[in-house]
């Protein structure tokens, strides 16, 4: 938990307006200032480490499994307390340790899988994947990627843990921009008639 050395010195925007509007909160002024100080520290850390709130809020563009133009796969995860991260799944016969992540700054971890020799993606479309995480207590636990694009509830016979299916459809099966293309086509046909 973050702490603020002197909460009463923290400047909170429009705090006097808040306390005027709701005098009941006056006895909580120190706590409001402390919490705002914690918030500001966190925002400053995000600005410094991530390049600002806008970039931070677009984490889905960086984190999770992504197919690169050359069909290699890069996966970035955030697990600051982990001792180790490993990628496993159908692609590697569920080998728990064969694909370790590299630890980066600020609790980030990254792994890159090269494309297959034939240039295809090393993880097949809809195949299952999971992340194995080595905890500070040296326990290996399985986790789903929080940025997974396709997660499926398993059959009741397989327990309650959801399955992450890697989503990378071939171009002919992709539905990118279908709505925009359809509307454009309709508008063109309407304007020419």
SSE blueprint and pairings:
Layout: H1 15-21, H2 29-50, H3 53-57, E1 64-67, E2 73-78, E3 84-89, E4 102-103, E5 108-113, E6 128-134, E7 140-143, E8 151-152, E9 163-165, H4 178-192
Antiparallel strand pairs: 1-2, 2-5, 3-6, 4-5, 6-7, 6-9, 8-9
Total helices: the number is 4
Helix-residue proportion: 25-40%
Main sheet summary: 5 strands, antiparallel
β content, as a range?
A: 15-25%
Domain count: the total is: 2
For this structure, the quaternary state is single chain
pLDDT averaged over residues = 90
CATH class of the largest domain: Mainly Beta
Shape by Cα distribution: extended
Kindly provide the radius of gyration, computed on alpha-carbon positions and rounded to a whole number of angstroms: 24 Å
Task: Describe the fold and architecture.
One of its GO terms (molecular function) is 1,4-alpha-glucan branching enzyme activity. Residues 63-148 form the Glycoside hydrolase family 13 N-terminal domain. It holds the Pfam family CBM_48. Helix content is 25%, strand content 21%. It folds into 2 domains: 7-54; 59-173, Immunoglobulins (Immunoglobulin-like). The chain is built from 4 helices and 9 strands. The chain is α+β, with helices and mostly antiparallel strands. The chain has helices at residues 15-21, 29-50, 53-57, 178-192, and strands at residues 64-67, 73-78, 84-89, 102-103, 108-113, 128-134, 140-143, 151-152, 163-165. The longest helix is centred in the first third of the chain and has 22 residues, at 29-50. The N and C termini lie far apart (66 Å). The strands form 2 sheets. Strands 3, 6, 7, 8 and 9 form a 5-stranded antiparallel sheet that branches. It has a 4-stranded antiparallel sheet with strand order 1-2-5-4, with no helix packed on it.
